[in-house]
Specification:
alpha/beta, 7-stranded mixed beta sheet, 4-stranded mixed beta sheet, 18 helices, 20 strands, 44% helix, 13% strand, disordered N terminus
């Protein structure tokens, strides 16, 4: 498939020849989630999580303010170790945490609802490296970061701009959060994730968000999310606690996501991993409710196996069971669920990457995930983001979206009027029912070539990575930044300039 053909198909939405359905702001899932564990199995996981919280406890390190919150709630606090009576965290969360919430975007048409039967797809988070057919594997730059924000904006199957899609290592650590927050705001009009590497950086992201939406709107609505990662096993450090408290105090969403590597930061079996994940997440979500009752929280998980011979994490493993079980626990608790994606341990976007990513994505959507992060681009288990894999994963999300939307079984879809007396043995190729519907009856992919061998050969014998490379170059060339109020843009740039003057150039 030539670059010219890809470009033509990308632009064809306004033509009568082959219209493209309008992109949805988020997906309303019609397919039910997979109920993986029995009632007894779920109860045993919850009981183990309660035992960890009550008998072992969670350490809240170097943050007296957080300790004061849990003391006032009558948790058992001894030094920095916090123990919660069985059911205590669950009771705090269920009393005030929303089961679903609106996450506002700069463009109101891009607002999403997180929770319930809704699914929101968001790109990779946190990769220090990038690679592509035109890019040898290297540390990411701010240009890379902004490129991926632009691709996220252009991709109809992505509903969210994400957070630190890749680390812009050419900008000081102390200042890059400003450029990333601005990049999301300026180059996308979808929702985004703010800075979480310190309390003052979180405050900067919130200040910039308030410039876009207004103080009153931010105080009353979720306009930015925070990715909160406790340190497994069973520790919240000062930065994590402070960041969680700041976002909760401003009524912004905390995606509380423990990260367990089996046999390293948690026991080696899936059951023990998901119980520990649940305990750690409930402690953080309960704290958010103590800081500001009703502030949005999302139960997130990240889990993987460990190759005990090499020390390397693995993805073809049974930790995928944790996704399915955690989705059930989240629904029982009554909070939205974050998980999964399309990650792979592969180093390049090859067959390995495709198989692993497809399996991971399948388990993720079956779990009933509400906020799907790492949905696009991840190689090396998220250490590297691939330009080509980003585009290819978006194609998979497009297919998944069609499946999760369910099946139309109306009279029109069933073709009730399409059968006449001469139907047996006849053809439907020129039937009005076919002509009216064939253009969008199936997901037609630009990346996955379904033509004959001869057609593919005569068009250059291009593999999927080459087609993806052509497509992403076309997407970036055709990209147009969404409009923004000039006064807001000037205020953001002025704020960034002043903050950068105040902050030291630190790369550590």
């Amino acid at each position: 498939m030539t670059a010219e053909r890809i470009s033509r198909r990308r632009r064809r939405g306004a033509t009568q020849e082959a219209p493209v359905p309008l992109a949805l702001a988020y997906l309303k899932r019609a397919a039910p989630p997979y109920e993986y564990l029995s009632e007894d199995g779920l109860q045993r996981l919850e009981d183990q999580a309660d035992r960890l919280l009550a008998e072992v406890g969670i350490e809240f390190r170097d943050d007296p303010i957080s300790l004061d919150y849990v003391k006032q709630a009558r948790a058992d606090v001894r030094g920095e170790r916090v123990r919660f009576e069985p059911g205590m965290c669950r009771e705090i969360i269920q009393a005030t945490a929303p089961t679903r919430f609106d996450h506002l975007a700069r463009n109101p048409a891009r607002n999403v609802v997180i929770g319930g039967d809704n699914q929101v797809f968001s790109p990779l988070y946190g990769a220090p490296f990038v690679r592509g057919l035109d890019v040898e594997r290297r540390y990411a730059t701010l240009e890379d970061f902004n490129n991926f924000v632009k691709l996220s904006q252009a991709a109809p199957s992505l509903h969210h701009s994400g957070g630190t899609i890749c680390e812009p290592t050419d900008v000081p650590v102390s200042k890059r959060h400003l450029d990333m927050t601005y990049g999301h705001i300026r180059y996308s009009d979808k929702g985004y994730i703010g800075a979480v590497t310190s309390g003052w950086q979180a405050e900067d992201s919130i200040r910039m968000t308030e410039m876009v939406f207004g103080d009153d709107v931010v105080d009353a609505n979720c306009c930015v999310l925070a990715m909160i990662n406790p340190t497994s096993p069973l520790v919240y450090d000062r930065v994590t606690l402070e960041t969680l408290r700041i976002y909760a105090a401003h009524n912004q969403g905390n995606v509380v996501t423990p990260f367990i590597i089996a046999g390293a930061s948690g026991p080696v079996t899936p059951a023990s991993m998901v119980a520990q994940l649940f305990a750690e997440a409930m402690a953080g979500m309960a704290l958010a409710q103590l800081v500001r009752p009703g502030s949005p929280v999302i139960f997130g998980i990240n889990s993987m196996g460990l190759n005990m011979r090499t020390g390397s994490p693995i993805r073809f493993d049974e930790s995928w069971k944790c996704l399915l079980a955690a989705g059930q626990l989240s629904r029982r608790l009554g909070v939205p669920f974050r998980g999964g994606g399309s990650s792979s341990t592969s180093k390049i976007p090859d067959v390995h990457a495709g198989m692993e990513s497809a399996l991971y994505l399948n388990y993720s959507v079956l779990s009933g995930v509400n906020f799907l992060i790492h949905a696009t681009g991840a190689l090396e288990l998220g250490l590297c983001v691939s330009y080509e894999k980003f585009v290819l994963d978006c194609e998979m999300l497009g297919v998944v979206s069609r499946v999760m939307a369910g099946m139309d079984v109306s009279d029109e879809a069933l073709g009730v009027g399409a059968y006449g007396g001469d139907a047996p043995g006849s053809t439907f190729l020129d039937h009005p029912h076919t002509l009216e519907r064939y253009r969008d009856a199936f997901f037609e992919s630009d990346m996955f070539d379904s033509r004959s061998f001869e057609q593919w050969r005569d068009d250059g014998s291009l593999d999927a990575s080459v087609r993806a490379n052509m497509a992403l170059n076309t997407m970036l060339a055709d990209y147009q930044a969404p409009p923004i109020d000039e006064a807001i843009d000037e205020a953001l740039l002025d704020f960034m300039a002043r903050r950068k003057d105040e902050l030291p150039d630190s790369y550590a």
